[in-house]
Design goal:
Elements (H helix, E strand, L loop, with lengths): L2 E6 L5 E7 L2 E2 L10 H44 L18 H27 L7 E5 L10 E6 L7 H9 L6 E7 L4 E6 L5 E5 L3 H7 L4 E5 L10 H11 L4 E4 L14 E5 L3 E2 L2 E2 L1 H10 L2 E6 L11 E4 L8 E4 L2 E4 L7 E5 L15 E6 L5 H14 L4 E6 L5 H9 L6 E4 L6 H15 L3 E5 L6 H9 L3 E5 L12 E5 L16 E4 L14 H10 L7 E6 L8 H10 L6 E6 L5 H11 L4 E4 L5 H7 L2 E4 L8 H9 L3 E3 L5 H8 L2 E3 L6 H14 L5 H24 L1 H6 L1
Helix pairs in contact: 9-10, 11-14, 12-13, 12-17, 14-15, 15-18
Length: 710
């Protein structure tokens, strides 16, 4: 988490400096700090370690008390008197031996990681720095040029794939140098292969004399598929910050291990054929602090526990701590000032050949919002350009959702894990200048993007709001996408009726699923770990707050005594650890947590009942998939579920969101009476809703004229 501090400038005015977590690189050839400075630093770090430990103890005690209170309430509810003809047994007071072992192992692991974090601070006290970011008002003159060096010998088996991926890049001033060290030849071409020149090069100096990039980049081992905007975003990063090198992890990275970077990029003076010239980097650090950065253009890389990592590709010479910054500071200790500048102005004119849609994702794209954005891209990809700008990827789940849009025809910029928030506005301005969008679909809201959205609206773009959860949206929008739900059941703020565009839940499905063979159904159940003789309740939700995965756990706990009943919760997200802890704490042995491996259609076809507790206000793709597969549904209200179930039958909508007792009672009731939707009728209704949704989304994004004209 970044914090804000006020600092005094030379003019007597205060400005805001942003302090970010950093990692510190210590080269053993650099002189160590003086004993006095080391002693002061050690005292400061020890004091911080004690404060952090005290805060952790307070948090753990508060969590323990809250969980104990919730558990007692749950036990009291489960042990309530049974109704006529119904027996309810309370859960056991003591969890089983397996649950106790799991809980003890988790506690040991967490305690060990916390100890490592605190011991690291004590063991290396003089090398603990922070980077004080001071936003600058003036942008740099131009974007830096980048040369990607491809080793023709080492990459012989992947050279064509790598060159194809580089040719798809959107960055300007990007060139590729294919270097054959054995033959001593170098072929330099633009990323799109327009200009090609050849030269003799058998050494590092000859390569540098033949290429023009101010930064040189090397791809990691086995890397071929790259996000199409990767180098363009890296150019923006280098133009906004003074960095000696950048380590890039293109796919999502969530663990605390040491995977090799997909891309290592450094200033040309520091480039070596096998990595970075560490001696030159250390020499610079002796004079003034030098910053490097680790970014993930498709996922958050900040880890709670410091990680060990090698800097160079395939080299173990240097071991460093990775984080948002790597600080090379020699014998210096204390904060390192660092300016962050806006991006240079983009092109003056855009491409008006085709209509353009800009999707501005200001919050993580999860749940129904992500499915609605994907459906929108599929709907409009043949009639115009679709560009997605994501600034809030804080988990690999959101990153995977954003980059998956590239495969269905969108151009995706993931800015949140590479650029500081102060640069987001100017990055959106640059994208919009080259795209000139006719319509902007604003997913969620971030006040730091208010200026960019206002500028787009002033330039003539139509602004359409898509709410996420209970969060706000940008002010002054031209339309707002809402669920086509029953009157009085839609959980959306009250706005002008003409601004609301209802979208039916059935429109989310990409294709109408076919019938599933018995062998296919059994295969999915087997891969989920469900015995043949069990009744299966499937819940598919992103493990985020609006998905309410904790309700699934509580429902499984309330129905643990139901004979032959098994629950499977399929999902991933930042709350995965919390969900596992809750399952372990309640010792629910009838619930299995699985990562997504199957489509919604496969999961719905394998289920005896589908449970959807989420609080999605706009879309419920799981409900539509279940009805298409002929599976009964129990769902929380909202997202068009009420209208869809009212027309198709075969399901129950409980009275309120966040009511696991109501969900459990509805599950028991639906399984007992054996109701199922009429599949053929459901498919016909979903087909009509798909057509109605297509017209509705076009009306929202392009206006009434586009809806009538296709």
């Amino acid at each position: 988490m970044e914090t804000e501090t006020e600092t005094e400038t030379g003019t007597g005015k205060s400005c805001i400096g942003l302090v970010y977590p950093v990692a510190v690189v210590q080269d053993r050839d650099i002189d160590v700090p003086s004993p006095e400075r080391r002693a002061r630093a050690r005292e400061w770090v020890l004091r911080q370690a004690v404060d952090d430990l005290s805060a952790e103890i307070r948090d753990l005690r508060a969590q323990r008390d809250a969980i104990a209170e919730a558990y007692e309430q749950l036990r009291a509810g489960a042990a309530a008197p049974a109704g006529a003809g119904q027996a309810i047994s309370p859960p056991p007071r003591q969890p089983g031996s397996a649950a106790l072992l799991r809980r003890a192992a988790k506690g040991l692991i967490r305690g060990t990681l916390g100890s490592v974090r605190r011991l690291w601070r004590v063991a290396d006290p003089a090398q603990r720095f922070v980077v004080d970011l001071k936003p600058a008002r003036e942008p740099t003159a131009a974007l830096p040029s980048i040369t990607v060096v491809v080793d023709a010998v080492a990459d012989a088996g992947r050279a064509s794939d790598r060159l194809a991926a580089l040719a798809a890049q959107t960055a300007e001033q990007l060139e590729v140098a294919v270097w054959n060290r054995v033959r001593g030849t170098l072929e330099v071409q633009s990323a799109r292969g327009v200009d090609v020149r050849r030269a003799a090069a058998s050494s590092r100096d000859e390569v540098l004399s033949a290429v023009t990039g101010s930064y040189l980049a090397m791809l990691g081992e086995g890397v071929s598929a790259l996000p199409t905007t990767l180098f363009e975003t890296v150019q923006w990063l280098l133009s906004s910050e003074d960095l000696a090198y950048v380590r890039v992890f293109a796919p999502p990275v969530d663990d605390d291990g040491d995977p090799p970077p997909q891309l290592l990029l450094c200033q040309r003076e520091l480039w070596q054929p096998n990595g970075i010239d560490l001696a030159a980097l250390a020499a610079r650090a002796a004079r003034r602090p030098v910053l490097g950065k680790t970014v993930g253009l498709a996922g958050r890389l900040d880890a709670a526990v410091p990680r060990l990592a090698t800097l160079n590709l395939g080299s173990g010479r240097l071991v460093c701590r990775t984080g948002r910054y790597d600080v090379w500071a020699g014998s210096r200790s204390g904060p390192v000032p660092h300016q962050v500048g806006p991006l240079p102005t983009g092109p003056d004119a855009g491409n008006r050949d085709r209509p353009a849609l800009l999707v501005l994702a200001a919050v993580p794209m999860t749940g129904g919002a992500a499915d609605l954005v994907a459906a929108t891209v599929r709907e409009l990809r043949n009639s115009g350009r679709c560009v997605v700008v994501s600034t809030a990827v804080d988990h690999a789940l959101g990153a995977a959702r954003a980059l998956r849009l590239e495969r269905i025809g969108a151009t995706v910029y993931e800015l949140g894990s590479a650029l500081q928030p102060e640069i987001w506005g100017s990055a959106v301005d640059r994208i919009a200048a080259g795209l000139t969008p006719d319509v902007v679909l604003a997913v969620g809201h971030d006040p730091r993007l208010d200026g960019a959205v206002s500028g787009l609206q002033a330039g003539g773009a139509r602004i359409v709001a898509l709410p996420v959860g209970d969060g706000p949206t940008f002010a002054g929008t031209d339309a707002r996408i809402v669920a086509d739900d029953l009157p009085g059941r839609a959980d959306v703020p009250s706005v002008e009726a003409e601004q609301q565009v209802p979208v039916p839940a059935g429109w989310i499905l990409e294709v109408v699923p076919r019938g599933t063979a018995a062998q296919e159904r059994q295969r999915v159940r087997s891969e989920l770990g469900v015995p043949e003789d069990r009744r299966l309740v499937v819940a598919v939700t992103d493990l985020v707050a609006p998905g309410r995965p904790e309700d699934v756990v509580v429902v499984a706990d309330l129905l643990r005594r139901e004979p032959g009943l098994c629950f499977v919760l399929v999902g991933d997200g930042p709350l995965a650890g919390s969900v596992r802890d809750l399952i372990s704490f309640l010792a629910v042995d009838t619930l299995h947590l699985r990562r997504p491996r199957h489509s919604l259609a496969e999961l719905a076809a394998a289920a005896d009942l589908v449970l959807d507790p989420s609080s999605e206000p706009v879309a419920r793709p799981l409900v539509a998939a279940a009805l298409a597969a002929g599976a009964p549904v129990v769902t929380a209200p909202g997202g068009g579920a009420g209208r869809l179930l009212a027309e198709t039958g075969g399901g129950v909508v409980v009275g309120s969101i966040g009511a696991p007792h109501e969900l459990a009672a509805a599950v028991r009731q639906v399984l007992a009476d054996g109701r199922r939707p009429a599949r053929e009728r459901a498919l016909a209704i979903l087909a009509r809703q798909h057509e109605a949704g297509s017209n509705a989304i076009r009306r929202a994004l392009r206006g009434a004229a586009a809806a009538s004209g296709g």
